[in-house]
Amino acid sequence: MSWLTPDLIDILLSILKAVVILLVVVTCGAFMSFGERRLLGLFQNRYGPNRVGWGGSLQLVADMIKMFFKEDWDPALLRSRDLYSGAGYRLYLAAAGLRYRAG
């Protein structure tokens, strides 16, 4: 197996690590979404996702499809300069406040 060089092994291991990390993150997101829907169902005294579909798995797929095709909405009077400068201004105030902390 002369084609299996150390560089190729490093590349394949990097790809494998990236795929594993991606699968872990996606799985955690799915479980968090399921838990959120279940908890909200209990709070609102309605059926949660485990009573709809095949144990709630269809609800996760429906949420994923909804998020992929959700339309981006911007208010008509939104000025992006104000939106982004407001975030920077808050960051500046927080950093300036660190100078005057007790201690």
UniProtKB/TrEMBL annotation:
Its EC number is 1.6.5.11. Its main location: membrane. Coiled coil: none annotated. It is found in: Cell membrane; Membrane. Keywords: Membrane, NAD, Oxidoreductase, Quinone, Translocase, Transmembrane, Transmembrane helix, Ubiquinone. One of its GO terms (biological process) is aerobic respiration. The keyword Transmembrane applies. It is a multi-pass membrane protein. The chain crosses the membrane at residues 12-34. The keyword Oxidoreductase applies. Pfam families: NADHdh. One of its GO terms (molecular function) is quinone binding. Signal peptide: none annotated. GO terms for cellular component: plasma membrane. Belongs to the complex I subunit 1 family. This is NADH-ubiquinone oxidoreductase subunit H. It comes from Klebsiella pneumoniae.
